[in-house]
């Protein structure tokens, strides 16, 4: 898969979960949890996953709007990818 | 493909091109051009692609080290994805 397609996949994925409540522009706490369970199965193996997901939502919601917009989602994904890359050195 | 796997794909892709010159930690101008041609085929259809790629390299190289590290690569990819998402509204 090309990077061009990977970028498209990230947009499609965000909109898929963000659209559950009819508003496809933002992720609610519930939608983020749903995304995490399906998209980050390794993270969600933790018995503390509910606690972790609540903390992640708070961290992601940089403007404290109680929802995650696409920019906040991408910033989080970038930070996660950089942390993962650092682990794989 | 899950987001977890997409993140891994981005790391693999960066290292694949960054490793051409034996140093897999950074992309040179030449390596970036190679990546762009393979990974952004739509962008590279432009007859001005060489000019555009030179400008992109300068923009990506935030610390002016004349190479692109993984962080710079991810910042660029994030900006591109946000711009793409904005176009698809």
Automatic annotation (TrEMBL), chains A, B:
One Gene Ontology molecular-function label: calcium-dependent protein binding
Keyword annotations: Calcium, Metal-binding
Gene3D superfamilies: EF-hand
Signal peptide feature range: none
Residue span(s) of domain EF-hand: 48-83
PROSITE patterns in the record: EF_HAND_1, EF_HAND_2
Alphabetized CDD domains for the sequence: S-100 (cd00213)
SUPFAM superfamilies listed in its UniProt record: EF-hand (SSF47473)
Pfam family, one: EF-hand_1
Superkingdom: Eukaryota
The protein, known as: EF-hand domain-containing protein
């Amino acid at each position: 898969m090309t990077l061009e397609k990977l970028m498209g996949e990230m947009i499609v994925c965000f909109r898929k979960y963000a659209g559950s409540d009819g508003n496809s522009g933002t992720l609610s706490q519930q939608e983020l949890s749903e995304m995490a369970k399906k998209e980050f199965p390794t993270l969600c193996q933790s018995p503390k996953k509910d606690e972790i997901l609540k903390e992640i939502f708070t961290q992601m919601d940089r403007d404290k709007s109680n929802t995650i917009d696409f920019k906040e989602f991408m910033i989080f994904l970038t930070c996660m990818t950089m942390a993962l890359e650092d682990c794989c050195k």
